[in-house]
# Entry
Amino acid sequence: MTSIKGKVVAITGGARGIGLATATALHALGARVAIGDIDDVTLKESATTHGIDAYAKLDVTDEESFEGFLNYVEETLGPIDVLVNNAGIMQIGPFLDEDDLTAQRMIDINLRGVILGMKLALARMVPRDRGHVVNISSQAGKFGAPGGATYSATKHAVVGLTEAVRGELRLMGAHIDLSYVMPFVVNTELGAGLGQARGLSNLEPAEVADAIVDALQHRTVEVWVPKSAKRTNVLGTVLPRPLAEGIARAMKADRVLADADAIARRGYDLRAARSEPALDRAPDAAQIPSSIREPGAER
# Structure
């Protein structure tokens, strides 16, 4: 089992939620942890409150910002052993109603940010022949979730990206570990107002953080949270499609994003719509789906 103590860990999207929970869990085990986030106010508050070793503002869609963050981490704490690509957003709603700016924003943050982070981190890790990159995906990255088509697409892409790069590293003979983490709905701001699936309970950020710690210690590639979800996935792949889809409908798994409460998610959607400064913005109201701009409107 790989020891966490003394490892230098950089975490994106570390100001809150899964990122912050992972930072505190690793810090408690003796890792030297740096967190980055676009929200520099909350970032500073979180780092100070939890005694995180280092923090810096980070825009994962901007190469100069990401490179600067990793340089800062190495100058402050030492060579990076672990990068956790956690930053991501989820703006949901019917696919046909989704505006292009919303789709571009999710692709840029959820996918291009992960691609950029992996390239920059691996450029440092490969010459040292050590390191571990953890990419946060979602169970929507395996099943595809109605109501979150573009979000699901970005998370499917993270799974494929991780598997492909892992194969390339193996062909190179590089001893670098890659993992992708697929949690169910987590009780964070991103998960606010989502529907419920029968037989499944929402997770706490600490549960996902524990799974990430376990993946780092055991060099696990495919990380399901909860672990029982892996059995569901295996069952779904061996059953005939009509039966597997019938079971998913019976569990209301296809309604988790589709039945989201737009009013409960309003605060998150407003923040997510402002989360990427690299994009040219339309007026604020135009970035928010009509069902959110007009409380009570039907989807």
